[in-house]
Amino acid sequence: MGKHDELYQRSLSDPHGFWGEAAEAVDWIRRWDTVLDDSNPPAYRWFAGGELNTCYNCLDRHVERGRGDQLALIYDSPVTDTVKRFTYSQLLEQVAQFAGALVARGVGKGDRVIIYLPMIPEAPIAMLACARIGAIHSVVFGGFAANELATRINDAQPKLIVSASCGIEGKKIIPYKPLLDAAIEQAQHKPESCIILQRPQVEASLQAGRDYDWQTVSEQATPADCVPVAATDPLYILYTSGTTGQPKGVVRDNGGHAVALTWSMRHIYNMEPGEVYWAASDVGWVVGHSYIVYAPLLYGCTTIVYEGKPVGTPDPSAFWRVISQHGVSTLFTAPTAFRAIKKEDAKGDYLKQYDLGPFRALFLAGERSDPDTLNWAETMLKVPVIDHWWQTETGWAIAANCLGIEQLPIKHGSPTKAVMGYDVQVLDESGKEVPRGDMGNIVIKLPMPPGCLPTLWGNDERFRNAYMTTYPGYYLTGDAGYQDTDGYLWIMSRIDDVINVAGHRLSTGAMEEVLSSHQAVAECAVIGAADQLKGQLPVGLVVLKAGIDKDKDEITKELIQQVRNQIGPVAAFKHVVIVPRLPKTRSGKVLRGTMQKIADSEDYRAPATIDDPAILDEVTEALQSIGYATK
Length: 631
Ligand code: COA
Ligand code: AMP
What we know:
Mean pLDDT: 96
Shape: globular
Oligomer: single chain
CATH topology of the largest domain: Rossmann fold
Number of helices: 18
Bound molecules: coenzyme A, adenosine monophosphate
CATH class of the largest domain: Alpha Beta
Distance between the termini: 47 Å
CATH superfamily of the largest domain: ANL, N-terminal domain
């Protein structure tokens, strides 16, 4: 048995011993009573009875142990032509100061704080400041519209919101404050106050008595100390797409999260404290939470906050410039970023201009890594390119090639094997394990390892219904795929209405809700059609109400704008087509899967239960008119 398999077996047969040892790498204020409290399944609690502070583990302890002068964070922003460096001591000072500002505004342990910020150092500073005082942050990605922000405000009920005057997307400046004001206006819950960072590109107007200037409140504050929290207390809520317009508020605890992420830096990413780790993502996504902010700092690495794109800021050499300039050892990003680079620099001419120095591994996640992109990245970079599979719910990798344990042979298209603590199985509809090589629903036998979601915010019932009831005793990942005879996992598709657009997880159900609300629409379906750059793109098919005589182009334009206004530009909803009817089974279920296959020009077999097969020809014709189903 190889090292990976040996450790894996131990993690499953002796979770108490395995994770108890891993927990020694974290500083505890009070040691746990039990490594795993399994008295109330499916609610498992890691390190119950333990107390710690995540911010202390990310900052203070490194300063106390002599890392104060080491770089903790590098802000690299090609869009503002800025590079700014923070040592651990400097970052600690700023975080304690901002934590003091939050306290002065009445924020305390257990209060929620929404953070709506672009990729600037103030985002991790605000997150860590919340962790420091035991407040629960909920970061909302900047590409979401006011309506999505309002939904999250209503659900999380924040005491305070932290935002900035603007974000910068390539060459576009996006004022954030009007979006924030509209969201607060729309939400039933009203925050007591907002702290706004004024960026030089745009000045936000502040509402007296509610809005405060970041700079002023920070300067006036008394630095706040770390507050002890229970290992099982929430560190953050991160909303992610489910099957409806109401996103799921994934909760992350403090103790299990700190243990799992610290373990992952050594064993999955093969990092040493002091090295530079770069996750080119956004703090609004789980990758940003775990691998821009928490894991690198927990482990004593230097992290990079990059405000730019893989291409266009200014060109496809952006990633190579950052790696070379800051001495990055490991890069983590989504395959779509590499597809974007490859499209503009297939021969790697830009890459040749840079010496990548200590760079030794590329990790990809967020969507399936297509073998073409993997091949290209390997050939160009000449380092291992590691696909690994995870979800917002788990917060860290479920399957990976753990470079810090042993490098297993790479199979293109597979994220390798289940990671320690994850008992991954593939089941059929009846809950029986399928033979190796057969497709099925991918599940994780409970308990899941530390770091995975203990529940959904304020909604234990939805947590159980969404993940735990389909197969009692197992967590439903929502992904379908298979395990091969070598034990490698192959993650092939989602089993629900979630699609993946440029590594961003989106709900087709949410888009359908927006389309249905248009007065001309009788019914609709949104599918995820294959896209060379973004992996998938949403395509809407709508049936109009009888008697609508408005111009069809006008209607489709309105529908596109409506999704952009209500969900946000990140939905990348640009294709919608009007069809006479939607294909359905006789029981009325819309055949989204079949339409997706048609759009992608894949072979399909119309289900025997279809009410009228002729509808599929109508759909094919309509999709052809917008450039799909062409082969
Ligand atoms: N704030 C405001 N708007 C944003 C935004 C933000 N933080 N992030 C994206 N948007 C906007 C974009 O400007 C774009 O708007 P447009 O329709 O006006 O052009 C839209 O949302 C879609 O964004 P995106 O899907 O990112 O497309 P893009 O064409 O701007 O860039 C890539 C394509 C591939 C370069 C880009 O998606 C990327 O770098 N991906 C990296 C992977 C990644 O970050 N994954 C996250 C999980 S690991
Ligand atoms: P998110 O919660 O946004 O991280 O999205 C999680 C989903 O993205 C997973 O459930 C998968 O559908 C998909 N995903 C993430 N990483 C991979 C991967 N390496 N291979 C295939 N699919 C992936």
